[in-house]
Amino acid sequence: MKHVMRRSSALGAVLLAVFLVSLDAAVALQVPEVPSRFEPLVVPDPATSLDVATTPVASLHASDRARAGWERFKAAHAGSWRVHLDRRSGAPLLVEGDGIPWSVAEDASVDSIAAGLRTFIADERDVLLADDAELVLDRDGSGKLTDDVWQIVFSRSVAGVPVAGERYVFSVGHGNLIAFGTPRWSRIAVSPNPRIDAEEAQARMIAYMGLTPADTIEVVAPARLEFVALRAPGASGKAPAGPFAGPLGSGYASALVWRIALRVSGELGTWVARVDAHNGAMRSFVDDDRYARVKGGIYPLASDQICPEGCEQPNFPMPFADVTIGAATSTTTTMGVFTCSPAGSVATTKLAGQYIRINDTCGLISEAVTCSADVDLSVSAGTDCTVPAGSAGGNTHAARTNFYQLNRVAERARTWLPSRTWLTTQMTANVNVNQTCNAVWDGNSTNMFKSGSGCGNTGELAGVVLHEWGHGLDQNDGGDFDNPSEAYADITAFMTTHQSCIGRGFRLSGSNCGGYGDVCLSCSGVRDQDWDKHALHTPATPMGFSAPRCGTSSDGPCGGAGHCESYISGETIWDLATRDLPASGLDQPRRGRSPTSSGSNRAWDRAATRTTARSRARTAAAPRRGSPSCASSTTTMATWPTERPTRPRSSRRSTGTRSLAAWRPTRPIRTAPSAQRWLRPS
């Protein structure tokens, strides 16, 4: 029992960090109300939704060569194994089972474990379809998750050119190779030698955008070569839409492209072009920003003045803040404590701490006090640039709220993901940005907008702040962005606030979110991830919700708008924490703690642990809605298992929720989307 509990705890570390928790991307709270002039030029990235059809090996004909290969694998490695293939490539999306004995030395390193895995990959070349020469050890994505669980990631490079979004992920722990697979392993059949150079590719992008010498351009990412996966053309010569139903392994084509990212002064967005390096065609042109809005505080949840959580609360500690005394600089503790000496000295903070730095457009932050007293940033009425009497111009609600909320969520994530360098470096949070009704993660920082146009200051709304930070973690958690990344960000927010209404107080009128036609009943934010707080009182599913309500888009896993389709995954995880696990008795206090000290938090912890125990490391572009694999994948948010799946002691469905038995990861959903991710209010 002790061993099992240790394993579950190790796995829980991964997902909880994900839930809390090399792109020039930005993530937005919603699509801007005033579109960029480049919006009509958008060409969706063909690799964001490749209509994968997950194929269990057992469904293949007995004479199929791939099935014979996997039957050999199962015979060679005793125990129960479940294998799901990508029908387009024939490569495994997910292989999980009892494990293959795998010795890990006490002084093991990422390199030593990777070396052993390379031998395994070579021995299983006929089923893994990966050549050793194409495997590049991803040291940022690899590492020791716990004392006895390792994750090793190989990215892919063909003839020295990286293949976008393709990698193999292996989980090794407790003396076994537990699980492995790849989100995509496409067929590279084009020359790695470009016919047009980087300069010409950038010139084509500028011409396509209609830019003139009057436009000020910032090249965010210079042109670099990469391979991208495409749908293979059908008999007509065109790539058919919909779930792939052709012969196993024949569904991918590819292109060699120049990837370029730039910004234009005065225009929203980071615009990314993929220019075909052979014929100059524009393979994709998208805004890669992921916008969000944040506003200060410290408001525990919102600034809607519905107390207590919607009213500003005094005396919250400023964790890990910078403090300067004379020429010496120090950092406060997690509870904001620092040593203030010698007596009579002046201590100053600028909220430019070890992990979070506030940049407030309302002014500089510089608050000082004589030692022996607290540095009290205080409270104030009003919003936006209103500050306490006598304070510097940047000591706003948004500045204080962002500093507290971001430090708290990052601190929690570091507990679970100590090897993620992004969590240990300073991130900038821009607040009171001179725009309204939005917020954005721009690839490096969060950006929260002022109040106006009927919207609250997003820097004062914890749900929005945490949502945008969640996009940052999604970008930096060792893999590419999830699809839909909006679900990842919403889950990050509600796993922290325990509130299903994302961004309460966003609508100053107090009106409810539209829910894409399934109207929210009591949420003034952008979405409510509790299906029972919508007019229809019905869980969102691909066929029952996405198909009729989410329209047609390139950014959702089932072919609809990503913000809309995020309801499917988001509602599922909310349901798990608030209904399924409590119904199984998993919200009871831990031994040695009083009910008030642990309370319902145990269900939230278990929600993370149980979901992680079923899955690890997102994979595979999602299939179109209407296919069984789309239906299952969007409700599982499947990840790579690092232990055998377990269920709660009860699978009761008296609440009308999805049974955990339906969480079998038949089609993982990790993708590497490059289209922008807006958190659109519904």
In short:
With 682 residues, the chain is an alpha+beta fold. The chain is 24% helix and 21% strand. It has four domains: 8-21 and 477-678; 22-32 and 291-476, no CATH class; 54-87 and 92-181, TATA-Binding Protein (2-Layer Sandwich); 191-287, no CATH class.
Descriptive overview:
- By secondary structure, the protein is an alpha+beta fold.
- It folds into four domains: 8-21 and 477-678; 22-32 and 291-476, no CATH class; 54-87 and 92-181, TATA-Binding Protein; 191-287, no CATH class.
- 24% of the residues lie in helices and 21% in strands.
- The protein contains 13 helices and 24 strands.
- Strands 2, 3, 4, 5, 6, 7, 8 and 9 form an eight-stranded antiparallel β-sheet that branches. A four-stranded antiparallel β-sheet has the order 10-11-12-13, covered by helices on one side.
- The protein is globular and about 80 Å long.
- 55% of the residues are buried.
- Mean pLDDT is 80; it is low at 1-24, 292-297, 589-600, 609-629 and 631-679.
